[in-house]
User: Which sequence fits this backbone?
């Protein structure tokens, strides 16, 4: 039967197309914004870090409130706050004012996450991993389209703000579309796979092991930080790395983010198909984080244009193809009560990365941009280690013995 929440889900996904634009829109317009604010790359990086501050301010609270008051209010809060961000950046005359609006973007992202992820898991209880991973497809769509649009704007000498206007228009139209669409109930539901495991465990009189926040919870928090840091760093600095280290032109270096987004999209569709079969989200976490580590290491060791293009695709595939969403799905399975709260905890770790990574990389950019990629190599390796721990702990928790 057709799922009655499909139109709602489509609208929720469209918000993340705009979010995909919003994540990189400051970095893609770094030169134009630097002129507007009278600053350099480090100054723009500082403003980019404000998005992480905004997420930190409200994510934990909004997640808990989403469980209490429903998903719809927080989706609309996210959309309206994002509109304020896009408008505010266009008219910000200085770093200080832009920083305030950057905080609003982080708040908007938190509101959207707190309402959207739980709503999708509740709308598609039989395939929550797939529902969440598709969010990444729309994020990647926005990240694919924006560099191309910015490239056209730069080449024609048009006003940089047209991409901001486009984002505003999409959000307004989508808000009208979503107005009368239904949202699901917030009852706690297990995926069929977990239900089957639990029933079999009951049959043999052996209870399923309970998740321990001091172990699994801490691992997920750390993984949330690492996963966000890995792809966030690349999305903000890959264009500059291609131009200054690999010697690529403006158009070619901007296109790297589009290759990165294509890789991300490819991974989303492959993962969505495989998750429906016998493969578990935890298996993807291990494989993808390992591929991220290797591809980043190759990118740092051999900074040529062709390596940059291939690595951009592979990194997009492995680091930005939905590992963050899969991580949240696994955490929600291990801590099924209060999905909004779980979302808040997991993405708070990611928001700390969104705040700290631009500050660290902004300073590194003053020395050598290659050092930024080297930092990401180390981050990806830690993520691989954490993914292995999560894999074994997950299997233990849902083991029959």
Assistant:
């Amino acid at each position: 039967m057709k799922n009655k929440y499909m139109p709602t889900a489509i609208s929720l996904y469209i918000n993340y197309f705009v979010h995909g634009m919003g994540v990189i829109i400051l970095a893609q317009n770094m030169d134009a914004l630097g002129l507007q604010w009278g600053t350099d790359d480090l100054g723009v990086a500082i403003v980019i870090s404000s998005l992480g501050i905004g997420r930190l301010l409200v994510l934990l609270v909004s997640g808990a409130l989403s469980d209490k008051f429903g998903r719809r209010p927080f989706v609309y809060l996210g959309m309206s706050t994002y509109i304020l961000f896009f408008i505010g950046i266009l008219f910000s005359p200085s770093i200080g004012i832009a920083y305030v609006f950057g905080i609003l973007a982080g708040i908007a992202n938190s509101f959207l996450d707190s309402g959207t992820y739980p709503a999708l898991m509740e709308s598609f209880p039989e395939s929550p991993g797939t529902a969440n991973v598709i969010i990444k497809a729309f994020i990647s769509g926005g990240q694919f389209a924006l560099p191309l649009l910015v490239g056209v704007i730069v080449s024609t000498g048009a006003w940089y703000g047209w991409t901001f206007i486009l984002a505003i228009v999409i959000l307004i139209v989508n808000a009208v579309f979503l107005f009368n669409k239904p949202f699901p109930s917030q009852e706690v539901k297990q995926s069929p796979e977990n239900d089957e495991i639990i029933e079999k465990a009951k049959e043999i009189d052996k209870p399923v092991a309970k998740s321990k926040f001091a172990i699994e919870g801490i691992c997920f928090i750390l993984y949330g930080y690492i996963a966000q840091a890995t792809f966030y760093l690349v999305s903000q600095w890959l264009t500059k790395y291609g131009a200054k280290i690999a010697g690529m032109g403006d158009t070619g270096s901007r296109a790297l983010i589009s290759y990165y987004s294509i890789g991300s999209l490819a991974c989303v569709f492959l993962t969505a198909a495989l998750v429906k079969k016998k493969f578990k989200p935890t298996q993807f976490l291990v494989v993808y984080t390992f591929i991220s580590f290797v591809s980043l290491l190759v990118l740092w060791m051999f900074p040529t244009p062709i390596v940059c293009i291939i690595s951009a695709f592979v990194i997009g595939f492995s680091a930005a193809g939905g590992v963050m969403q899969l991580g949240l799905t696994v955490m929600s399975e291990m801590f099924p009560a209060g999905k909004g709260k779980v979302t808040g905890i997991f993405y708070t770790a990611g928001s700390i990365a969104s705040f700290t990574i631009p500050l660290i990389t902004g300073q590194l950019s003053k020395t050598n941009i290659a050092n930024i990629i080297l930092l990401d190599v180390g981050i990806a390796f830690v993520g691989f280690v954490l993914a292995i721990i999560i894999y074994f702990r997950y299997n233990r928790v849902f083991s029959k013995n």
